[in-house]
């Protein structure tokens, strides 16, 4: 004999409210549930009162969602703001490359040790074909375009408005997707390049301070990290 609980479970649902979804877009996103890049559908929905499974009366609009094609989990549309793994890797490579060029422009490219440290940093970020000659050439071209090297004060020109804007444009979108340790790592990588040929010069310190600011690291924390890096044997 069935229990009362079992009988209730077998009773058909006579009426209820269901959401009917329509796909309005698709693409690839980083699924928080899967922990990786997945295809998605962007859905809009309408709630309807149903009787015996038949939709009858509208009950308003449902909030739009993003549905993962793999796990079928629904996420708020803000999930699309998180870069895919592929996009994040590209953003990180661009950021490291830009910061490296800024440090080299501030400290110069005459030191073989500095160029070796710069190449190692850029390659670790994923630009495996980077060479010392490439970095040297790009920095020289940048110097020529900005007019540096013709009697100007390197410290004054190291991180002028144009370079500061470029660093913020590259680093600011990346910073929210990096943990605190990740932001510090980008700063310390650039600090090690600057320190490869000795203590920071004024121009290098100015660039590194701007890097910390663009990454959203408080000024006092940036100063502490740079000081610790300078005390750490290379």
Automatic annotation (TrEMBL):
Residues 95-225 form the Co-chaperone DjlA N-terminal domain. Coiled coil: none annotated. Gene3D superfamilies: TerB-like. SUPFAM superfamilies: TerB-like. InterPro entries: DjlA_N, TerB-like. This is Co-chaperone DjlA N-terminal domain-containing protein.
